[in-house]
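Why does residue order matter? Because the sequence determines the fold. Keep that principle in mind as you read this record.
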Amino acid sequence: MDGRTLVLGDWTPIVRDGIDVLRLVILGGAVVYAAIGDWGSAALLAFLGSITLVARLVNMPRLYDLSLTLGMALQGFGETLGWYDEWVRFDDLVHFTLPMLTAPVIYIALARLEVVPDPRDETHLQHYIGIGVVTAALGIAVGALWELFEWRSDAWFGTALSVDNDDTNGDLFRDTLGSLVGAGLLVLWARFGWGSVRRIPGVNTHEEISA
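Structure:
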């Protein structure tokens, strides 16, 4: 295996690259927690792992496949291993990184559904501005929906997800910053015309899809 294949992947049809290894770590974690009887942690990791499998099935570009998988691993293991309680700033880290990593993925998924323009369709300024605005709005909206979930979960199920208004506003602020960074990175992605489909290693073409 040469260096290019090691980094870009296509090792085998089943385990293509390091991203698939991380996917297997998430799903393997679900199996381990199920084996020891921690069904809540098992269900969470299984759910997040299944999201990464969808990204694999639709041939998401490698960078954004990695972004989504990292985001799901951060969220899943942060919850199951108690990092939110152990590290005071872990919640701040998650609220910045998750929108940064996942907002562009949501945009690309919508592009694959032909709801929004594909990042490589056009190359003019208005196109880039539109990509940035929509991607940032998606990330901010997801962050806001999560805060609503925390608010209602505390009221209906007696959880303690939302500390106070300062905590909520701080989370929304970090969600917004992360979404803006993610939107800017997607605009750069579009500027180079890389599109919404996983590229074939070693050639300047894309894999066939049936989106």
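Residues 3 and 9 are 10 Å apart (CA to CA).
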